[in-house]
Amino acid sequence: METTSSVRGMNDLLPPESAKWAHLERVCRELFARFGYDEVRPPVVEHTELFVRGVGEGSDIVHKEMYTFRDRSDRSLTLRPELTAGLARAYIEHSMSAKEAVTRWWSLGPVFRYEAINTGRYRQFYQIDCEAYGVGEPTLDAEVIAMLHALYTALRVEPITILVNNVGRGEDRGRYREALIAYLTPHADGLCGDCKRRLVTNPLRVLDCKVETCKAIVAGAPSVLDFLGPAASEHFAAVQATLTELGVPFTVAPRLVRGLDYYTGTVFEFTTTAGNLGSQSTIVAGGRYDDMIGELGGPATPAIGFGIGVERTVLCMPGDAATYAPPVGLFIAAHGAAARRRATALAHTLRQAGIVVEVEHREVGMKAQFRRADKLGARLSLALGESELASGEGKLKDMAARAEHPVVLSDLLATIQRLLA
RNA sequence: GUGGGUGUAGCUCAAUCGGUAGAGCACCAGGUUGUGGUCCUGGGUGUCGUGGGUUCGACUCCCAUCAUCCACCCCA
Fold first, then answer.
1. A338-380 pLDDT, tens per residue?
2. How many Å apart are A11 CA and B50 C1'?
3. How far apart are CA A222 and CA A225, in angstroms?
4. CB neighbours of A72 closer than 8 A, spacing ≥ 6?
5. Is the ipTM of this complex over 0.85?
6. Any idea which nucleotide's C1' is nearest the CA of A281?
7. Count of helices and strands (H, E) across chain A
8. d(CA A51, CA A80)
9. A384 and A238 in one domain?
10. Which residues does residue A165 pair with via DSSP β-bridges, in sequence order?
11. Fewer Cβ neighbours under 10 Å: the N or C end of chain A?
């Protein structure tokens, strides 16, 4: 029988790794709630047009990485390559701006990009996004960055570097773009092939090139920060001042740019050397996109958001994945059918009281049962055989200490709660 | 898309110069133990990724292909 494998770049998430993911999601859920974010779940598939307009034709994502197909009605659909555009579509479609002045949403799910597979990079991967609509003030920018700082602190991911920049908007951005082209054009011969193309299609991305010769040229390029008008400069200064007041460490990175076209003004990126991510050291990135809602046909609405790379973040979280799973409180080893029934009933009661209980349902020897209790890391074990059934008493064994505690089976819960406390 | 590494038991990996494969882990049983986890003994499975080529003979050499990992590019 020929077996089938998963699609290249699309992987199964299995235990114990899944426990680490669950922990990340749990921490996010609680933290985001404290900051006023509500969960939303948009579809995985959208009209292709949304990403072309939202993410931008100049981006590599739209250019060559989308999973685009025609459905049976001959509509062009695309598996979302990121979450922000779909969430913006939902925000507009449900007239959120008319319902509330400020909307804070978060979402989690798979996104798809057809690209080369590498460490922390897959064709189906997961992002956790937060988006805040309706506020253009710099204190929100700082709040968002501070929330992420709190998140990674809670996850014990370190060291973290927070890079912040302002890529300008409107006329400021246009003037900088012209100045950058004016500077780069005489050096065009020294740029790599990609950058020669970028010079025409998306000059700001040249700033982000990793090729040494390009970096050398970029080192002398004008800084976007020198082209910000008074309003943008003031905004960026306020973001920094607020971050400082919140005690969030950050570095201004004038050459930090984002790969998606929609960003305006404040952009940021968290990187880490943890997890051996190599060149894929960015674990979360985001920024303002004050023009996108309007460009997608909604009312002009300022917005800011970020996308957390789940796989990369999980790789950076310390400790073995298994340590994130809830520990087994009690393992019940049973000998014989009658004992198994009693064990099943006892376990049911204990589980309803919140204890993690594992019962050996197979007919195997005691030795194998205790071996399994040991492997599962059970805190306590209880052997149930004919004598225990007859007397209604047993011995709770502390697996680590190898000490045994007599227990009356009818009083099992209280004894266990005392021992596990 | 470009460059490099690796594909052998369920998992992690060995196999000399080319002579049709082995260990650990895991699993079960037995010994010891209090019917009882760490110690000891025993128990078995491989289209050697796939297809072709060279050879008397290929896990080993060659070509192709697929998968996987790493770097680059790009991004989260």
1. 999 999 999 999 999 999 999 999 888 888 899 999 989 899 9
2. 22
3. 9
4. none
5. no
6. B76
7. 16, 16
8. 8
9. no
10. A267
11. N
